[in-house]
Amino acid sequence: MTWPSHGSNPQYLYEAAGLTLPECLIDFSANINPLGPPAVLQKHWGDLFHGIGTYPDPHTASLKVKIANREGIGPERILIGNGGAEIISLLGRLIAEKKVLIVEPAFSEYEKACQVNNCDVSYYQLSDGWEIHLHDLIGKLQGMDAVFLCNPNNPTGMYYGTDIILPLLKACKRENCLLIVDEAFYDFTAEYEPLVPYLKEFPQLILMRSLTKIFAIPGIRLGYLMADRSLVEKLSAYQPHWSVNSVAIQAGEWCLEDEEHISKMIQFIQSERDVLLRFYQEQHFEVSNSAINFYLLRDPQLNDQYPLFEFLLKQGIVPRHTFNFPGLEGRWLRFAIRTSVENRKLMEAMKAWRRLNPSFL
Ligand SMILES: Cc1ncc(COP(=O)(O)O)c(C=O)c1O
User: Fold this and answer.
1) Is 10-30+260-356 a domain of CATH 3.40.50.720?
2) Which of 165, 187, 213, 280 shows the greatest Cβ crowding within 10 Å of its Cβ?
3) Stretch 28-56: mean pLDDT
4) What kind of architecture, by CATH, is found in domain 53-257?
């Protein structure tokens, strides 16, 4: 059976599972802001039509300036991409044929980008509740040219603060190794500690961001990278001209003005997460120590979670499988935090599972 390599597009998941796609379903497999896109997008959507008759600015200058001002860095340190996915693909070219370490489990596109660019890939596998053991990780850096670290981590939702990142960054500097930190989900964590201030001192630091999760615009495709100017120049030389379209540029500028949307979402996620965690504890499910808008879950009575996965799919509840996450391999399921109504439907389905499969713990 070939499972889809990402969440969303549930029709492919049902096809792979040999199940009929229900008419009504709730997709917990994509980690998108449950509050939806900022209202400004819908309000001004019609205005975007005027921009499509001309080529977009190939330098994405206006959006770069907006991000630069927000982050307190120069626009020359920023590269805008057609989603974080394009940024990862450009990074793959940058580190082609080099020695790369991936901290796993992580977003599968890092490995894919490395493989198509003939990188020599090694892995640091997180276990024991997915804590990073610095001594072990730093021990693996010798001879490496680049490290991929997903922080906050997809799929676990774990967030690693500067107590972990700074010693790692210093070790990368000693080894002359790039540290690529994918911060696609950074806005979802209340306790985020900014790494941007370290860009000047550590030219080997590369920060990647995505606007598609936080602003719920995955169909538009928009992400960016912040790094040393020389790296940005190299990466932009690989990027197709006009890669970022004019709708994405304008939509990104509007979204970034809506700081309130982010603070509202953080509060909402925190309160929904508390409700869900209490419920899972009462019902004897095990959940990852997530700081963000999704979490891993397992019924500790099952090793392979497939029976629970199939049960939920049949009820129109779509979890994200973990077959393609090294170290998880189907022993966990990932769920996004969605609206209150949808999270309650999920809890109902979990209760129904528990009634049929009582816990003996
Ligand atoms: C950790 C991580 N980084 C990057 C991306 C790519 O995001 P985008 O939608 O901006 O291409 C994803 C998408 O799921 C992701 O999970």
Assistant:
1) no
2) 213
3) 95
4) 3-Layer(aba) Sandwich (3.40)
